Q: What sequence folds into this?
């Protein structure tokens, strides 16, 4: 008895399709960390004590920090771009609004902006830079 041989070509083994990471992913990851941590830091320092961000607008910046974290982890370019734009816009506008609101009411008499306010603001700018990088360079080098 002979052996049976097949003339059909061997099928290649299936591979997982890997999408390249969007450019700006690492910047968005750092920005998300800054938004999340800065939300819990003091936003306003007075002679009577410090007021943390999560007591007010910092809770919203914490939420968009988590949104930015999701955008940094997703491999789809347009989704990452949308997450970076929304998180950056909120993380820049809320601390700026908080600062201007207090400054219009009392000037700099008796208070100063806290560390968390600046951390969230700079993280928002970093998220907008990440959005710009994702828009201009679709794939990380």
A:
């Amino acid at each position: 008895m002979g052996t049976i041989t097949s003339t059909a070509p061997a099928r290649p083994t299936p591979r997982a399709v890997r999408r390249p990471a969007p450019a700006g992913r690492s910047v968005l990851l750092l920005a998300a960390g800054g938004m999340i941590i800065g939300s819990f830091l003091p936003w306003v320092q007075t002679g009577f004590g410090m007021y943390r961000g999560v007591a007010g607008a910092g809770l919203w910046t914490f939420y968009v920090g988590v949104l930015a974290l999701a955008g940094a982890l997703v491999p789809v370019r347009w989704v990452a771009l949308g997450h970076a734009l929304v998180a950056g816009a909120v993380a820049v506008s809320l601390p700026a609004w908080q600062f201007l609101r207090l400054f219009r009411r009392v000037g700099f008499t008796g208070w100063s902006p806290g560390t968390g306010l600046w951390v969230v603001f700079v993280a928002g700018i970093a998220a907008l830079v990440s959005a710009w990088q994702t828009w201009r360079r679709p794939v990380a080098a």
Summary: Helices lie at 25-40, 58-73, 77-106, 115-136. The mean pLDDT is 87. Residues 15 and 57 are 46 Å apart (CA to CA).
